[in-house]
Amino acid sequence: xPPDVVFIVSEHVRRPxxxxxxxxxxxxPHGAVWFIGGRPGWVRNVNHIPFPDHExxxxxxxxxxxxxxxxxxPAEEFYYTEDDYFILKPVDRIPDYIxxxxxxxxxxxxxxxxxxxxxxxxxxxxxxxxxxxxxxxISEPASFDVHIPMxxxxxxxxxxxxxxxxxxxxxxxxxTRTSERVLIEDIKVSASRNMERIxxxxxxxxxxxxxxILEPTMAGLFPDPCRYEQEYYMDAPYxxxxxxxxxxxxxxVARRVRRNKPDQIVYEDGTREDVSDMCDCGFVAKxxxxxxxxxxxxxxxx
Length: 302
Description:
Blueprint: E1 4-9, H1 15-24, E2 33-37, E3 47-50, H2 57-67, E4 77-82, E5 85-87, E6 96-99, H3 103-114, H4 121-135, E7 150-153, H5 169-175, E8 181-184, E9 202-204, H6 210-221, H7 247-250, E10 264-266, E11 272-274, E12 277-278, E13 284-285, H8 288-301
Parallel strand pairs: 1-2, 1-4, 2-3, 6-8
Antiparallel strand pairs: 4-7, 5-9, 10-11, 12-13
Helix pairs in contact: 3-4
């Protein structure tokens, strides 16, 4: 049996990234798909285990990842992934990829550059991971945090280790097992690292780069809905059934389910409409001013 796939998902996950991440798994043999955390209403054919979010992003990821060792449901062997990891080419099995510099060097350069303790955000997350590995006798750890799905086994997770802060379970697991490792640069797309530099068959996005850089490529590679999504349904809380939109509301709250063109949406009746932008909630704006006005309504609600 091929490995299962386990997504660590926020309760407020953004649709386009998750949508294309799900579609990309058609390129890898896999078993059941599991969502740990949230599950949007438009997702189907996946198993769901609710897990509340923390305010701290890194604690949120770390706690959900740690729980996988003891959760009933997911198979012993599974691929760990997140909503913004994309597979671009067919592959039979994903190997262990590691950063082209050690975890000591990766974190040490930032500590020296900033001349302060860090201990916050991504770099604090990496510091904690390095320190836990050092405390457990691994003095020259590799960094497995390259934003690519990674094969895990529940029995290999060192959950008996003390982890005083959020840690990367990718690097804890990778450094405590023997496997073939492939050196690679981090494939997360940024303003200075565009799609042309990525040729190994994987990509990942940040909050600011998906719409501008990655989405047109994803739309070209994966234009059609997959078995894990329902077309033309608006989002609903993960513990409720999705609600189908009536014809009138389709014109107001439209999801770009098929995005062959970055600025075009397709409604349920097959009609198409050019738009300038869309809010994360699904509201389609026909002008930049309309989008700004709509977003102000969210601010007032908050």
